[in-house]
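Exercise 7. Predict the structure of PHF7 protein from Galbula dea.
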Amino acid sequence: CFVCHQGGATITCLEEGCDRSFHLPCAVAGRCVTQYFGPYRSYCSDHCPGQEVEVAPQAGTECLICMEPVDNQMSYRTMVCPACQRAWFHRDCIQGLALRAGIGSFQCPMCRDQEAFLPEMFAMGIRIPIRAPLWEDVQTLNELVERHSRCDASECLCPGGREQAEEEGPWQLLLCCSCAAEGTHRRCSSLRSHTANWECNSC
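Solution. The predicted structure, encoded as tokens:
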């Protein structure tokens, strides 16, 4: 292995005439690329594919996933979405996202593109498992569908407290029509009985 200089089972670079070989676990440290689709091709750091988009990150650009600075140019470590060409991220960060998201939910963190994004990430050696995202467990789904059920007015006037809500009348709870993350009783925000929508101060 040209990375760790140890023996054992190795992968040889697919480039014709190249005899460099490496262990699969050493690939990232050696800036090698293994394409996890089709015949599972591997390339050493000298012959690995690179992104073809001709863009460079602006000074101070941060990775959309970890919010740490990316390199000042496209590199093995620094990648960009081929669709929007504005979403920059570290290879390790996008690999982590791919492992959590699975093929059905893996997409550009900014523009949500999959059509150009998925093939590019596959070609760049990002391993994308064919399964549902890890966040689709029962607890997470319950949290996502749970409706906000509390009055968030600065002063709640309801005798039963912030958690009490009725189907209609002054103690009917309205949720913010923009974010649905805050609520208010009609009376607590001086809303008339025919008012159908309410927007919280944050929105």
